[in-house]
Amino acid sequence: MTIKRPIYDLTPLELSSFCKENDLPDFVQAELDKWFFLKKDLDQSKWDKISKERMKFLNEKFSFELPKVVWQGLSSDGTRKFLIGLSDGNSVEAVAIPAKDRLTLCISSQVGCAIGCTFCHTGTQGLTRNLKAHEITGQFLAVSQWLIKNVSPTSRLSNIVFMGQGEPLHNFQNVKKSVEIFLNPNGIALSKTKVTLSTSGLVPQIEKWEEFPDINVAISLHAVRDDLRSQLMPINKRHDLKRLFDALKNIPLKTSRRITYEYLMIAGLNDQQQDIDGLCELLPKKRSKINLIPFNEYPGSDYKRPSDEQVLWFQDQLHKQGFTCTIRVTKGDDILAACGQLKTEFEKVNKWDGDRVSPKAIETYQPNE
Ligand code: SF4
What we know:
The protein is of the alpha/beta class. The protein has helices at residues 12-21, 26-38, 52-61, 133-150, 172-183, 203-206, 226-232, 235-238, 241-249, 273-282, 308-320, 341-349, 359-364, and strands at residues 5-6, 62-63, 68-74, 80-85, 91-99, 102-106, 110-112, 127-130, 159-162, 195-199, 216-220, 259-265, 288-294, 324-327. The protein has 2 domains: 5-63; 68-349, Aldolase class I (TIM Barrel, Alpha-Beta Barrel).
């Protein structure tokens, strides 16, 4: 059996070339963009501008089937976590996070991760493999369609953050390609200001940033001293703070855009006055935003979350120094929100076999237990 290429693996340019090479008129691509990518409506009987013969031809060439939502769970704060099954039996997590005026999907770029950050549950799993472009766009489309079917026909994911499992720049080409598909103005049509890529600081790939579409960039900083950062993020031993900041200086930023620095706050480790001083020294104020993330404890982790008072004090000190500084509200505590935790717990209970998972296993799987 030949495995058909998923239609959502094609960039707009690739789809246009395919149409040209196969004498398909322009409206075929327009219809695919409108129904499949924009409306996420898989009912091909509605795509009525495309003749039956042409639809048959497209179905012979491409798969229109989306990845499966193997499991989903809703947190009391509205965060909804999804486990997405891939065709080879692996699975990855995606998390839909609601806020006042947006619904953000946090997506994965790899199965596992090679970076090995010591505060991260996925980091303990090692890297299994990179995701292909369609496995990245597929997460977005599968979750969108699930929400449209099960929550509201008007549900719409408005933002994407590459902050799920994996280091996105480690999977440079596939992530770049998926971003091109997300930004297609006639298809999924996300604005480039609504897509954020978060990296642990892979310097050689940051040096190639100008090859990427112009989206937001976030750096997982977490420490301002090399010894502590190397302890938290072993990647810092190869690409230390000096190399990282030298590379970041050369990222082309439009006047109003800034780099976001993610700063995971761990009690007693990086939440003191000396860390504030270090941030002030390291970060250029006009080009930086700081996002404080109080550590989300998970079973077996060595680190502790600082008190709310400590987090607020830290933020206040940075405000006084003239920085834009936000605190990320930890979401989904009650549904295994730590990155990679759901996948691990789920796999203890049953195995997604690439085709089906027993309905009983889904019913009996309770991540809160
Ligand atoms: S925090 Fe990100 S980069 Fe670090 S191990 Fe976890 S998934 Fe990988």
